[in-house]
Amino acid sequence: MNAVASINDYMQALGQRARAASRAMARASSATRNRALELIAQAIEREADALRAANRQDMDAALANGLAPALLDRLALSDKAIATMIEGLRQIVALPDPVGEISNMKTRPTGIQVGQMRVPLGVIGIIYEARPNVTVDAAGLCIKSGNATILRGGSEAIHCNRALAKIVKAALLEAGLPEDGVQVVDTTDRAAVGALITMPQYVDVIVPRGGKSLIARLMQEATVPMIKHLDGICHVYIDAKADLQKALDIGFNAKCHRYGTCNTMETLLVDRAVAASILPALAQRYLTEQVELRADEASYAILEGAAYPHLVRATEEDWSTEYLAPILAVKVVDGIDAAMDHINTWSSKHTEAIVTEDYSAAMRFLREVDSASVMVNASTRFADGFEYGLGAEIGISNDKLHARGPVGLEGLTSLKYVVFGHGETRK
Amino acid sequence: MNAVASINDYMQALGQRARAASRAMARASSATRNRALELIAQAIEREADALRAANRQDMDAALANGLAPALLDRLALSDKAIATMIEGLRQIVALPDPVGEISNMKTRPTGIQVGQMRVPLGVIGIIYEARPNVTVDAAGLCIKSGNATILRGGSEAIHCNRALAKIVKAALLEAGLPEDGVQVVDTTDRAAVGALITMPQYVDVIVPRGGKSLIARLMQEATVPMIKHLDGICHVYIDAKADLQKALDIGFNAKCHRYGTCNTMETLLVDRAVAASILPALAQRYLTEQVELRADEASYAILEGAAYPHLVRATEEDWSTEYLAPILAVKVVDGIDAAMDHINTWSSKHTEAIVTEDYSAAMRFLREVDSASVMVNASTRFADGFEYGLGAEIGISNDKLHARGPVGLEGLTSLKYVVFGHGETRK
């Protein structure tokens, strides 16, 4: 038997155990699931030294392998990261239980009562890169929502993830839940990922958390549905009727609050009617952050006139580029229709905002822009599970089916129909 | 250029036009969409003779090709079928508009207001077999829900579908909608289906309506998500605390009301405590329909004792067979846990029912059985969009993501986040 075949067997066994455990996870009471979360939090507190030691092993190996500083940074399990994991678990405990809620119950003319019950999806596969804290965050959300989980973290974090898995399994057992409710894939072999994303009989949904290249690769091969987004090419459109102050605040915040996040603005659209007055004022703000502006012809002329120093001519490629950097594509458009055309053509369907005081323009933008989050007079940076009040976020979806936008506990559940009858039969 | 390549080009062009039309469909008012539906109904009434002539062409060709009588029956466009299409359209007009509804609007501590707006999915692909009435039903539901549609009917119905397409396009134009809002694939080449299910850039979801073999084939190849179910292996479990009368009524109705439907019971589970008293009484009912009972060891002994004439020993294969015929698998189980184990192992996750007067058994069954519809004291035959009050049904989904169970207009929409701000920026 070759190595891939044996990894496949290993993953099949993992999947089978997850499927079996998912039934007990689904029927566990709220109190039991919350107790497991609290026990994990306590164990992390108690065994912080052991976790630090495991993380040191990972860090030493990563240093020896010459891992890039940015990745080393993500791999590190600082005291603050430990405290945040514990705090995160307790926040999840405090969230309302999504499982078992019945809604839309209606009595039909036949006498049956029909409603929908929120139930766990079953088995969630999480694929992520170095960060060990994802192990605990993701396990926490899956336990809370009554799902079994298979976690596949970055190979760089294997020692720390093993230590965390031990803690989680002990807590599940102590709470009276199956230890297979959360399983960490205990091999760094890449074939494990290939197996995980192609066993729909054992895994109901995959949540990939990581860079664009990871997700693009998974999209090619996965036969299990994914809750995912590939990138965030977010737009702000400054309408002819925009309030100047709001346009400046939102235009600056959406780009410069943080550069590396998927809800950061990457293209600014400005109505021709106000471009000459707004762009120079906005450029003064961008100058404080030395933002490079990649401008179309009309905006280039205006910004050149305003002597903006970091000015580059935009090419078509800029409309589909996620810079994740102090770079912004800028385009002058003829009104809201041209703005929405541009957005519906180039956007990654993540988040778009209009700045306007015009009621009809706001309503049209909300209705007609086909993205997961659509905003009026707010920074795109608000597109986030915590900011939306979901309490926690397992990921963000740019897809339209199932969960769309920031995904919290509800996205890890489904609605099944429940029927209360009294002996009714079909006539 | 070979034939498949040119079919591919044809389908790509269709997809591109559908995507473009979907924007106008999505922003059209309720009144406009309803007017288009009413115009289609009127045109079908007015042009019934032309439709009958087109159908006759299809029927003649089908007879010449030796099509099976059951398929001929589905292909025929009777006066009743025409009247039903018209009535169906008017029922869709009367349904509430799902598009644009905003729910869960909440004000966050930052000042932004966050809610969810129901919006069309975009482009729906429908793949179906001979029945020409599906062309009108499916187009009607997609127009109502603000989607563009690509319809690929059975090649046997091509003349009738062309005639219907002409009517639909004229009605769309007259209502002020793009005629590409509904497109009928005008080729009988099978490569068209292969293209339709692999262009996620133009098609948001595929709804296959047809037999198991069609859907199984599509599942192998589709890269576009599907709203589908493969089969309906539905169970009724008669609990130890079942009311005898309800058990007899539901046990008979779930099997014998109609044999060819996906919500028909295929396996009956009976608690050992009541098997000897209930099975003989139920068998008397089945005898009126000469239902073949495929019995496990324990139920075989009981039914043999009752001298049931159509008795066969069950094999393991029976637990996973959808008979669509007067045949029923029967098994005696030791209590609700054994019943749920059997169901969660063998069910196709379509619909299951428990017959019981025991409150805790009912609640456990509802919560723990992992199927799209779960019922207490009601016939599985109620699992249907009309019976559930959805008003219309585009299909049934056994999947857990997005739509689950009977799928109506809501299943053709998604929820996007909308944010009302007042100039807020992220701190």
UniProtKB/TrEMBL annotation, chains A, B:
Belongs to the gamma-glutamyl phosphate reductase family. Gene3D superfamilies: Aldehyde Dehydrogenase, Chain A, domain 1, Aldehyde Dehydrogenase, Chain A, domain 2. This is Gamma-glutamyl phosphate reductase. Coiled coil: none annotated. InterPro entries: Ald_DH/histidinol_DH (IPR016161), Ald_DH_C (IPR016163), Ald_DH_N (IPR016162), Aldehyde_DH_dom (IPR015590), G-glutamylP_reductase_CS (IPR020593), Glu-5-SA_DH (IPR012134), GPR_dom (IPR000965). The keyword Transmembrane does not apply. Its main location: cytoplasm. Pathway: Amino-acid biosynthesis; L-proline biosynthesis; L-glutamate 5-semialdehyde from L-glutamate: step 2/2. It is an enzyme of class 1 (oxidoreductase). The gene is proA. It comes from Pseudoduganella lurida. Keywords: Amino-acid biosynthesis, Cytoplasm, NADP, Oxidoreductase, Proline biosynthesis. Catalyzes the NADPH-dependent reduction of L-glutamate 5-phosphate into L-glutamate 5-semialdehyde and phosphate. The product spontaneously undergoes cyclization to form 1-pyrroline-5-carboxylate.
